[in-house]
Amino acid sequence: FPVTIGVFKNNAEKKYGKKTSNEERINSFGFIYATGLIDGCIFVSQITAGSVAEKAGLSFGDKICKLDDRPIFNVNEFSNELKDRKTIKLTWKSMDGKETTSVLNLP
């Protein structure tokens, strides 16, 4: 998958009642995310079936809060960090508040 594919419908506003932006991005790990932060985290708006992200347990509505054990302060930095990477470590919160950390490796 390329790092950015066009413009997608923003699901964050529907889920959390908070508008982030009108653009969402997809990456080679198989998740689409809004290009704005919600509560200091990145909203996962879609998961590609069979992707590395799905296999790690990432789901629609999860909020990614850390990349490589570092807080996320800027979505553009997050996007740039994903480029050309084969491995990332993500920490996310599910809708029920459970926090998960997993290393995602591309085949």
Tell me the strand percentage band.
35-45%
Output the number of helix runs. Answer: 3
Series of H and E elements: HEEEHEEHEE
Subunit arrangement of the protein = single chain
Secondary structure: helix percent: 10-25%
Radius of gyration, taken over Cα atoms and rounded to an integer in Å: 12 Å
Please state the structural category: alpha+beta
The low-confidence parts are 1-13, 15-23
Count of distinct strands: 7
The geometry reads as: globular
Overall mean confidence score, pLDDT: 79
For the sheet with most strands, the description reads: 7 strands, antiparallel
Q: In angstroms, what separates the terminal alpha carbons?
A: 13 Å
3D structure, described in words:
The protein is of the alpha+beta class and 107 residues long. Helices cover 17% and strands 36% of the residues. Strands 1, 2, 3, 4, 5, 6 and 7 form a 7-stranded antiparallel beta sheet that branches. The radius of gyration is 12 Å and the shape is globular.
Main attributes of the structure:
globular; single chain; 36% strand; alpha+beta; 7 strands; 3 helices; seven-stranded antiparallel β-sheet; 107 residues
